[in-house]
Amino acid sequence: MLARRRVLTALPALALAACAAPTASLSSGAKGPGPAPAHGAAEAPGPTGPARPPLPALEQIEGRFAGRVPAMWGLAVPGVVTRCSVASVALTFDACGGPGGAGYDSRLIAALRKYRVPATLFLNSRWIAANPGAAAELAADPLFELADHGTAHRPLSVTGRAAYGIPGTSSVAAVYQEILSNRAHLEGLTRAPGPWYRPGTAYYDDVAADVVRAVGLVPVNFSVNGDGGATFSPAQVATEVGRARAGDIVISHMNHPGAGTARGYEAALPRLIGMGISFTTLSRAGLPWE
Ligand SMILES: [Zn+2]
After folding, report:
1. How far apart are CA 158 and CA 161, in angstroms?
2. 145 alpha carbon to ligand 1 midpoint, in Å?
3. Which residues on adjacent β-strands are paired with residue 175?
4. Residue 288 lies in a domain
5. Fewer Cβ close by (within 10 Å): the C or N end of the chain?
């Protein structure tokens, strides 16, 4: 992949119009997805935005964060976005790769396409390497937005802290590498991947979450756990996803084709659509380039 690597560029300052960290107020009246068709899809390809400033060099980031000691660890440390104050639901699907599962749940993707439901897909480098054809196909589909799920699927830590037995990154330099090596792969797939990052296991410390922002991306988690790490039955998935309402960010997985996720979504999506719920990608919810 190195031959395809482009010069990395940072994103502009992100004016998060609608997506919010848990400590931020969720003001009403934020822009929704607009008068979209039935389910919020059929929109133009993703935003392109103005020229991006250069990516901060590793040395700059290391200098800026030297001596910072993490004080928090978890799924929703300060600065991590877990909801959007919009009238739609943002579905997100992780593709972890490696021992976390390198399969491709084409049935799940078919359900999203059937109902014209947009989603943000968090791809890990290992999953992309195992599924180059599917990755290219998803990148070319304007229904979907690609985002960064890390390179080695590590919990994002500056001290090596582990989650679920998976050791975290162990330094600011390792965090930088974990985020940006995969970013280069995403930029090889699509001109404008979303400015979103979710680490392997979804765990961060507060310093690592700040590093994500320092390189121009936004750390994202969720407010609804749709498939329990691809362990839920179809009925459980349908129940949990069916709880989603305006502003929720739902996490599920697209790398376990044998799990209950696809069948759960097949049941939940028509019900939610029937209730008038609409869907959005994170970029259309957050309007980060506007
Ligand atoms: Zn994952």
Report:
1. 8
2. 17
3. none
4. no
5. C
Query: 235 CA distance to ligand 1 centroid (A)?
Result: 22
Q: Kindly report the number of other CB atoms within 10 A of residue 173's CB atom.
A: 16
Beta strands in the chain (DSSP E): 19-20, 73-74, 83-84, 89-95, 119-123, 144-148, 196-197, 204-205, 218-219, 224-225, 249-253, 279-280
Structural domain span for residue 119: 72-280
| Of the listed ranges 75-89, 101-115, 144-158, 254-268, the one predicted with least confidence | 75-89
Q: Which residue has 């090889």 as its token pair?
A: 188
Question: Residue 284 is encoded by which pair of tokens?
Answer: 């259309």
Note whether residue 18 is domain-resident.
no
Q: Are 189 and 128 in contact (CB under 8 A)?
A: yes
Residues 14, 249: Cα–Cα separation, whole Å: 19
Neighbours of ion ligand 1 (CB under 5 A): 94, 96, 200
Residue 286 has pLDDT above 90, yes or no: no
Look up residue 164 and give its two tokens: 């679920």
3-state secondary structure of 280: strand
Say which CATH number the domain at 175 has.
3.20.20.370
Residue 44 CA to ligand 1 center (angstroms) comes to: 28
pLDDT in tens, 87-131: 999 999 999 999 999 999 999 999 999 999 999 999 999 999 999
Burial (CB count within 10 angstroms: exposed 0-12, middle 13-18, buried 19+), residue 27? exposed
Q: Which residues pair with 123 in a beta bridge?
A: 95, 148
